[in-house]
Amino acid sequence: MLITRASEYAILSLILLSSAKEPMDSETLSRELSISKSFLAKILQSLAKVGILQSFKGVNGGFALSKEPKDISMLEVMSSVEGKAPAVFECAPSEENCPSDRANICSIWPFLNKLQGKIDSFLADLTLADLIDE
User: Fold this and answer.
1) Spatial contact of 52 and 78, defined as CB atoms under 8 Å apart
2) Does a structural domain hold residue 44?
3) CA Rg, the chain, in Å?
4) Residue-level pLDDT at 96
5) Which PANTHER family match (predicted)?
6) Which pLDDT value is given to residue 6?
7) How far is it, in rounded angstroms, from Cα 115 to Cα 113?
8) Residue 63 in 3-state DSSP?
9) CA atoms of 47 and 51, how far apart (whole Å)
10) Strand pairing partners for 104?
11) Is 64 helix (H, G, I), strand (E, B) or coil?
12) Signed CA dihedral, 64, 69, 72, 73: sign only
C-alpha cells in the first residue's frame, strides 16, 4: 500500500507544523488532527530521527520543521515513517530479489517496476511546499 495511515498522519502533521510560529507538542497536534497521541508520537519521533523535524524538550517543547518545506520530499517523509520506501506493489525492485524467484518469466514485472520508478520519482520531486501551496 502506497499511502498508509502513518504516512497520511505524517504529512498532515508537517502541513500543520509548517504554519506554526513555535514548536507544537504531540498532544496539541493529536488534538488538532484528531489522531491517537501515542501513534502520532511514534510518527513524530521517526521524522525527528531522520532530521525532518527538530524536537525540543521542556515546558515549551514540542516539534518544529528542521528544514524548509521546499527541502522536504514526500518520498523522504513516507520512507521515514514506514521504515522503507513506499511500494505500490508487493513486487521486488529487481529480478534478483523476487520472492517467488519467477521474475524472469513474469510478464508484468517490467511494467510494475517501471511504474514504481515513476511513482518514486514523482514522490521525490513532490515537496511539502507543493502541498502547502495547493
Assistant:
1) no
2) yes
3) 17
4) 73
5) TRANSCRIPTIONAL REGULATOR, WINGED HELIX-TURN-HELIX TRANSCRIPTIONAL REGULATOR, RRF2 FAMILY
6) 95
7) 5
8) strand
9) 6
10) none
11) strand
12) positive
For the chain, what's the residue count? Answer: 134
Q: Is residue 2 helix, strand or coil?
A: coil
In this structure, is residue 33 part of a structural domain? Answer: yes
The answer to the question of residue 19 being in a domain is yes
* All cell numbers assigned to 95: 529480478
Structural domains in the chain (count) = 1
Residue 24 grid cell: 507544537
Instruction: Please state at what angle helix 74-82 crosses helix 5-18, rounded to 10 degrees.
Output: 130
Residue 99 lies in a domain: no
Which domain range does residue 62 map to?
5-88+128-133
- pLDDT tens per residue across all 134 residues of the chain: 578 999 999 999 999 999 999 999 999 999 999 999 999 999 999 999 999 999 998 777 899 999 999 999 999 999 999 988 888 777 766 677 676 767 677 788 788 888 888 999 999 999 999 999 75
pTM of this prediction?
0.86
